[in-house]
Each structure stands twice: as C-alpha cells, then as structure tokens.
Design brief:
3% strand, two-stranded parallel sheet, mainly alpha, binds fe (ii) ion, 10 helices, single chain
Length: 267
C-alpha cells in the first residue's frame, strides 16, 4: 500500500489512547501493534497525543492517600484487592506504552515505535489475563477503587523523551521487577498456581520492557553527549517524587540492562 493511503501510526495510537472501554482498548492496542508490524500504518506523526487517555466510569480513581487499606492478604477480599490493583497498573501501562510510541516516535524512529507498540500489546495481554483471573475470583475490573496517580509520571514528562524513559520504564517498571517475585511467592503459597503463572509471565515480559527503556535511554544520552548514569540520576531526581528503595532485584535488573552502580545509592 502506498504511504499516502495508509493511516498514520500517530492517528491510530491516538484512537486507542482515547478508547475508554477496557476490553475495546485491549483489542485496539493489540491491533495497532499488529497493524504496525505488518506495515499497514505510515510512519507519520500528524495527530497529537491526548493529555488524558480514555478511562471507564469504573473503577473510581482515588488519590493515593485515599485508597482503602488493603485487607488481610490471605482473605478472599484481600486476594481480589491484590489482583484488582495489579490489573489497574497493567491497564494504565497500556496507555503509557502507547503514549511513548505516539508522542516520541517521530524523533526516536521506527525501531522505537516497534518496541513500544510491542510493549503496549504485552500490557494489553497482561491486563486481559488479570481480568480473566478476577472473574474466576468472582470479581471484575472496576469493582474496587483504583490508584489515580499512575498517569501523572507520564503527564509530567510529556515534553522530554529522556525524562519519560528515565522515569517510566527505568524506575516504575523496574520497581515491578523488584516486587513481583515476592508477590508471586505469596500467591503460590496460597495455592493459586494459575495466578503464579500469570505473574511469572508478567515478570518475564517486564524485563524486556525495562530493557527497551534502558537501551533507548542510552541512545538519547549518547545523542545529547551526556554520561548515561549521570543524566539518568539528574532526570530521576527532577521528575520522580518517590524514592528508589531496596530491596532491588539485582539479577532481573541486570538482565534488563540496569547495572547495580546505576541505581544503588540514589534516593
Ligand atoms: Fe505489564
Ligand atoms: Fe511493562
């Protein structure tokens, strides 16, 4: 198909970001990744990314301080709360990956778009697996309130790809590598083998996501003539409000291209 007849990749991504129905967003995110892979979308950036992505009416989004306290981990309600919280993270992660590709793809190039659209497809699959698990537990996404803060990291770094890469894949997704193994063990210990397999798959995929982030960040640092680790520390201290706290999953982080001397001692 000649380029002029194809839909622009940015218009296709924008449409998925604006989709508010979770299942429709999952299908659309996987479709845009597939269409891009098959050459059906043009490398053209003529559509702006929305300030806020589409969100369903439920879950209600609450500021972090107003989230109800987690129930006891072993109880049925505690299990549902855990999967609901992870499901929400995966749902927002779809939009984080789409926004990365659609907002910064023009300056970063086609390989960058390919990487982050494949991440968006992974996140859509993660969300779908968790939604199915929630149904098995007699619940669904939207049944509980969810954390409103997850999009703010994207919003705050919308003008700078280096800052976005430093904070979203290299801090937030890397944090997932640290905490997921313990959650997985708890889930397995409670006898939820299916849930443990879902978390193992997520963990494996997230290593790849962090690696994409670290690799593209290194490219940007090189282009700017900056020292990779120094630039990362400056951007994290400027744009990330939390603290980087141990314990770190050093082996998963290393597999993702984050060396210990990068993140140890950063607070
Ligand atoms: Fe994920
Ligand atoms: Fe991810």
């Amino acid at each position: 198909m000649p380029a002029s007849h194809r839909v622009s990749v940015s218009a296709a991504i924008r449409a998925v970001l604006l989709e508010s129905d979770p299942r429709a967003k999952v299908m659309a995110a996987r479709k845009v990744a597939r269409d891009w892979r098959l050459g059906r979308l043009a490398f053209v950036f003529d559509a702006p990314m929305p300030e806020q992505p589409g969100r369903p009416e439920a879950p209600e989004l609450l500021p972090p301080g107003q989230m109800p306290r987690r129930r006891k981990a072993g109880s049925e309600r505690g299990r549902i709360a855990l999967w609901h919280a992870i499901g929400h993270i995966e749902f927002v992660a779809i939009d984080l990956a789409l926004d990365m590709a659609g907002r910064f793809g023009a300056e970063m190039g086609e390989a960058f778009v390919s990487d982050f659209l494949s991440v968006a497809a992974d996140e859509a699959m993660h969300f779908a697996l968790i939604e199915r698990h929630l149904h098995r537990l007699g619940s669904h996404y939207g049944a509980l309130p969810a954390h409103a803060g997850l999009w703010s990291a994207a919003h705050e770094t919308r003008h700078d790809v280096a800052a976005r890469l430093a904070v979203v894949p290299m801090v937030l997704e890397a944090r997932g590598l640290d905490v997921t193994p313990a959650t997985l063990e708890r889930v397995r210990a409670a006898g939820d083998e299916r849930g443990a397999r879902i978390l193992q798959r997520i963990l494996d995929d997230e290593i790849r996501h962090v690696r994409f982030g670290a690799n593209h960040f290194a490219d940007v640092a090189k282009r700017l003539g900056a020292v990779n680790g120094e630039l990362w520390k400056v951007l994290v201290s400027r744009h990330f409000r939390g603290t980087l706290k141990p314990p770190f999953n050093d082996s998963a982080r290393l597999a993702a291209g984050l060396s210990r001397d990068l993140y140890h001692g950063v607070a």
